[in-house]
Amino acid sequence: MWPDVIDDGPVDRHEHARLDALQRDPYPHYARARRAEGLTFVPELDAWLVARDADVREVLRRPEAFSSANALRPDVLPGPTVLAEMGRGFGGRPVVVTSDGAMHQRLRAPIVHGLSPARVAAIVPYVAERATALIDAFVERGSADLMAEFALQLPGQVIGRLIGLDPADVPLAVHGGHRAEQLLFRPMPEADQLAAARDVVAMQHLLDTYVRERHARPQDDLCSALIGALAPGGESPMVELTLDERHEMVAHLQNFLLAGHLTTSALIGTTLLHLMHHPTQWELLCEKPELIPGAVEEAARYDSPIQGFRRITTRPVVLSGTELPTGAVVFVAYGSANRDPSRHERPDVFDITRPPARHLAFGYGVHGCPGSTLAREQLRITLELLTSRLPGVRLAEERPVVMRPTMIHRSPEELPLVW
Ligand code: HEM
């Protein structure tokens, strides 16, 4: 599961404390970098911070100069015992988000097809059914942790359905996704890393079972479609998949699974958090549900789940007046571009009534998010149900809301609500 390009060793404990602080509140760093001349090198990110909207767009428009090979570079490198455990799993191959050029197009095509408007429309009733069932489970209680009981549940169930997982297998797959994120991005004692690695390996073996099963008996699901399109012998169930093909297919499925659920869970959490912090806007939304699509866009702009991804230069480049040599690492901050005053009026104000503006929460260009419609639909349905069923909802006061330290799935740790 480890990306091919790892250009550095793990960062030490003090650096992690600083990175933690930056991750929980990156906005002051962004504001400084947007005001500075040229690009700012940020040691915590170990990268040049690309903070202005125009510069972010320029990087995303030039994938031949800014490679995605390091997009998922881990912040933590595990020790030999943990690596040995990971060796029992599957994956460790380039995936759509870390590939460039022709290889990227080849990997992306079946995903775009699998997330076509028709496919998303077909899964919307399932989204509504699952969202309703999750709310039914806590509505009478008068309180809930919206993260644990809703936001962390719905997207996993939806992506599991899209891939073709049996609902009984979804919890193991989703749990494995969270553990993979922890392993790559959170410092932990070795025993905890090992436990996380075991969970990731269990998820990978589960996905491998599906790969072999769907290769032998294809069905109308994304797992079968990916195998048919990407494994060289994939279209013929008579030819057994090689071990290498199984590794590749598990890597793709794992990437798709994580891309689909962790992000959407995060956006459900931050959307509700900011609506609760702005009760008059919540009341307005309850009165005027036609504002829901605008509220989703505003939440994605205001506190983007994916704050940014890295890129690495393939040649000497001048960006915003800063000369970057070949191999320079940049952090392309969608979250900062979305707060750029030259693009958005009053960018630090959360306002669900603002006129539509093109934000970068779902990226842009060749790697732009193919799952954005599905994510928006899940948010729309969530807000329609919560505004109609729990209009009196508000933040529980006894516990302050703490943001998770992450640049890729920004969300509250917990979201205790009462009504
Ligand atoms: C709120 C939810 C989501 C957010 C904020 C989000 C954001 C993003 C962003 C910013 C990128 C661009 C990455 C880059 O520039 O390197 C991206 C790519 C991607 N997203 Fe999403 N995403 C979300 C939901 C989803 C869902 C639901 C799926 C799948 C069902 C998905 C699948 C992907 C995939 C496969 C890529 C890689 C595309 C490529 O490299 O060509 N995302 N997403």
The CATH topology is given as Cytochrome p450
Mean pLDDT: 93
Largest sheet: 5 strands, mixed
Shape: globular
Protein name: Cytochrome P450 107B1
Family: Belongs to the cytochrome P450 family.
EC number: 1.14.-.-
Enzyme class: oxidoreductase
Architecture overview:
InterPro entries: Cyt_P450, Cyt_P450_B, Cyt_P450_CS, Cyt_P450_sf. Keywords: Heme, Iron, Metal-binding, Monooxygenase, Oxidoreductase. Its EC number is 1.14.-.-. By secondary structure, this protein is an alpha+beta fold. The protein has a single domain, classed as Cytochrome P450 (Cytochrome p450, Orthogonal Bundle), CATH 1.10.630. It has helices at 13-24, 27-35, 53-61, 80-86, 101-114, 117-136, 146-151, 154-163, 170-185, 190-216, 222-230, 243-277, 279-287, 292-302, 334-337, 372-389; strands at residues 40-42, 47-50, 66-67, 143-145, 309-313, 317-319, 322-324, 329-332, 394-395, 416-418. The strands form 3 sheets. It has a 5-stranded mixed beta sheet, sandwiched between helices. A 3-stranded antiparallel beta sheet has the order 4-10-9. A hairpin with a 4-residue loop joins strand 1 (40-42) and strand 2 (47-50). Helix 4 runs parallel beside helix 10 (190-216) and helix 10 packs across helix 12 (243-277). The model is unreliable at 1-10 (pLDDT under 50). Protoporphyrin IX containing FE binds at residues 68, 71, 96-97, 108, 111, 115, 159, 256, 259-260, 263-264, 267, 305-306, 309, 334, 361-363, 367, 369-371, 374-375.
